[in-house]
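Dear colleague,

Thank you for sharing your sequence with our group. We've completed the structure prediction you requested, and as agreed, I am returning the results in plain text so they can be pasted directly into your records. Please verify that the sequence below matches your submission; if there's any discrepancy, let me know and we will rerun it promptly.
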Amino acid sequence: MEKQKKPSRQQVYTLLVQIGRKDGDGLPEGATGAALMCFASGVDEAEAVRETVAILKQADTAPLDVTGYGTLAEREAEGHEIGDEERALMQRALEENAVIVAQMTPFFEDAGQA
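Please find the predicted C-alpha cells below.
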C-alpha cells in the first residue's frame, strides 16, 4: 500500500526585517543598518518570523524588528501588485522550505540631521 503524501500546510509570508550593525554582517561601510525584504515559508506567520530571525542570526546579522505583510493571497486581497520575479521567489521559498532575502536596502545616517 502506497502512502499518500499529505498536502503541505506551508505557506510563504512576506516579511520586512530591519537589522542593525554587527561585526561581519556584510553591510556596506558607513551603513547604520538595513531593511531586508524576505520570503519565508511556515505553517503560520509566527513560524516564518522565527525561522527568518534564526537564519539571519546564523548569517551574522542583528535582526531588530520584523513586519509581516502576509501570504501571497492576503497581499493580493489588499491590492498589492506582485510581479513575476517576486512570485517566482515566493514559489522557490515554498518548494525549498526556505527563507529568501529578495532585497536589501542599507541605511545611512543623514549628515544633515542633528
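Summary note from our side: The chain has a mean pLDDT of 91.

Kind regards,
the structure core
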